[in-house]
Amino acid sequence: MDGEELTEQETALYDRQIRVWGADAQRRLSKAHILVSGLKGTVAEFCKNVVLAGVGSLTLIDDRPVTEEALSANFLIAPDENNLSGKSIAELCCDSLKDFNPMVRVSVEKGDLSSFGGDFYDKFDVVVVSCCSQTAKKKRDETIECQLQYTSFEEAIAVPWKSLPRRMSKLYYAMRVIERFEEAEGRNPGQTSIEDLPKVLKLRKEVCEAHSLNESSIPDLLLERLVTGTREFPPVCAIVGGILGQEVIKAISGKGDPVKNFFFFDAMEGKGTIEDISEPNNGS
């Protein structure tokens, strides 16, 4: 991302943030290219944040039509039926984001992650993925150039549970169970309901036995919340989307180290937790 200096227009527009993190960091941001797949409420907040920060370009992938759920959480989609006809979520978000900062190039790419090869991803400095299965996350497990070496997503979730800290967030274990259930049932992320709870609890028992973990580490109530509370809550989207934007800006600008390597936010407790999950004795 080394190269051209900031233009006079960029320097004037981003003057206040340049005073915070410096011209070199802003230059890196202005030359960065970000790819986003899956525009749910949290990711919409993230997109707004990085566009306002002045990234070079933002490419959106989400061919889904607009639903009532999307309207309730994604503030980038105006609830105007005349504007919704025939447009995908990505196209509607693109229209809104261009108004936030005309200096950022915002575009739409049609298709899904599985339809693109490695050359496509090489064009981007950061790839943000949402609304996809655990398997899809593994396939898109790309390395971002930064000062720290990070354990990949696939390596992290392969770490034996008995090797994890005793005070590991219960959300980590619960999310792994939910992901296993969704894949076993052929569901898309978030396609669960209270009727699925008995099967999820049975799977929890199997997973805990396989990992020699006490079932109390994944409470029934937590799993019930996860299978029923699949709708996004806009205030939580704003919090998590803000944190995601902050960490991506760190990775691009070199100002601070991004979170290493999992972040969980519990809306019931109003608390976020960072967990560093990597192979034992692995310095990465």
From TrEMBL:
Record-level GO BP terms: protein sumoylation
GO CC list: cytoplasm; SUMO activating enzyme complex
Residue span(s) of domain THIF-type NAD/FAD binding fold: 14-273
GO molecular-function terms, A-Z: SUMO activating enzyme activity
SUPFAM superfamilies (alphabetical): Activating enzymes of the ubiquitin-like proteins
Pfam families: ThiF
Protein name: SUMO-activating enzyme 1A
